[in-house]
Write a structure and sequence with these properties.
Blueprint (H helix, E strand, L loop, with lengths): L4 E5 L3 H13 L12 E5 L6 H5 L7 H14 L3 E3 L9 H5 L9 H12 L5 E5 L2 H6 L1 H7 L4 E3 L3 H12 L10 H16 L4 E4 L17 E2 L1 H12 L9
Parallel strand pairs: 1-2, 1-3, 4-5, 4-6, 6-7
Length: 238
């Protein structure tokens, strides 16, 4: 039975758009009617997840639940959240809805175990919120793998790359990419054999062509999984 996908977005809007685009590009389709019905709630007003986790902002939980309920009411059969940090709040959202949320963090761990079973050290580029909650660390411990975080200075620089005046959320790409590539070099120096784009904004600026070790894109993994769970086929060319 075919299902409708719901995207709980706005965190940020470009990452939401990217997830929708990845679903379209990776669905086997020959005409409009072959594509998946996708419902999107794009609410950029949801309080910043990392700031709340770091004790510097309001809780996003109420608005996350409201958005998920809206998607459920609209007819979504499964819900996707194109924000890594927001996955820290999944249990609280799930307690208030009746449709499943695909956990991007857990799906990334499963993907890595299947595709790179021999690699046990994975470098994580993320917000400080993701770093503090250790959601990737816990998921990867379940597949007997280690998450390597950047040294403190580089982690601070990553936050500037994402949130700064010339950061990704402000629509810039070149300066953030330079900063993030420095962090990737630091992660490789510390033993990382893959790099995980643990913030959906990072996947907008760092591509496989920029680095010489495998790049793991959780947003793409989420898109591919959602296509299959919705009862559709993946495009062979992708």
């Amino acid at each position: 039975m075919k299902k409708q996908i719901g995207i709980l977005g706005g965190m940020g809007p470009e990452a939401t758009s990217e997830l929708f685009s990845l679903i379209i590009k990776n669905t086997k389709a020959y005409n409009d009617q072959d594509h998946i019905p996708v419902l999107i709630v794009n609410n950029p007003g949801i309080p910043d997840r990392s700031l709340f986790i770091l004790g510097k902002g309001s809780s996003p939980v109420k608005m996350l639940i409201e958005g998920a309920l809206k998607l459920e009411k609209m007819g979504a059969d499964i819900i996707l959240i194109p924000c890594n940090t927001a996955h820290f709040f999944i249990k609280q959202i799930e307690e208030n809805i009746h449709v499943p949320i695909i956990n991007m963090i857990k799906e990334t761990a499963r993907h890595v175990l299947h595709k790179f079973p021999e690699i046990k050290k994975h470098g994580l580029l993320s917000t400080s919120g993701v770093y503090k909650t250790a959601i990737y660390k816990k998921a990867f411990e379940n597949i007997s793998s280690e998450i390597i975080n950047p040294d403190a200075l580089y982690q601070q620089q990553n936050m500037t790359a994402i949130y700064g005046k010339n950061g990704i959320k402000a629509g810039f790409k070149t300066v953030p990419r330079k900063i993030l590539l420095q962090s990737i070099a630091n992660l490789q120096k510390n033993g990382a054999c893959t790099i995980i784009s643990g913030c959906t904004e990072i996947s907008l600026v760092i591509k496989q062509s920029h680095i010489n070790i495998p790049l793991i894109n959780p947003l793409k993994i989420l898109a591919m999984k959602s296509i299959q769970l919705a009862g559709y086929s993946l495009s062979k060319s992708k």
